Task: structure prediction
Amino acid sequence: MTTYHPNRTRLLNMMTYISMGLVFLSSLMVFAYARPEALQGNAQKIFYIHLGTFFGSFVLFSVAVVGGIQFLRTRNNKWDILGLATIEVGLGFALVNIVTGSIWARPIWNTWWTWDPRLLTVTIMWLTYAAYMMLRSGIEDPERRRRFAAVYSILAFSSVILTVVIIRIRPDTIHPVAGGPSVTSPDASGDFNMSPRVVQTLMFSIFTYIVVSITVAWHRIRLENRAQYIQSRKVELLLNA
Result:
């Protein structure tokens, strides 16, 4: 069974409590500190979760690339577990991003969904990583599965890059740009006229969901280690029966 240094366990527990505190503080800032946006009103408040979960998934998918590269270099199973955990949790955060975006779109665009370039690419991104899970379940040989999954996790990141840049290069997108240069906002100010409180709340929300995503992925890694240990024990018992 995988053993962990007590300091690592204490750090994980600390990050868990910190994550809970950050979510509480972030919610407090969203509903009590940041005032409603001038044009969108209270509907804009869901954007804090929407953007925060996107950055959370972005960080996890980036870590999966590192895990894929490291596995191909070392063939160490811990990097495969890292890739699996980060992509699995990243899929959950990306799904929340899509759902909250749809909820925001209903009062602002008067529709739950439209095939805007940004919405199209984020859907492609989610399906690309969902296919990663299907790939893993479809290959029985463990070593071959890990090798294919590592290569796929590296290539799949191109869908994340496309999702990030599409709203900055396509003039026909109606999806707003919160910050940075775009076709409609070449001075990097974004499409929102945000007050300092809104900016502070947005940055804090992004930080919060990045910390939460890392913490959940860490728990998922430990769960996978335990699952693999149980599976190896089952095989050992069957062979000795």
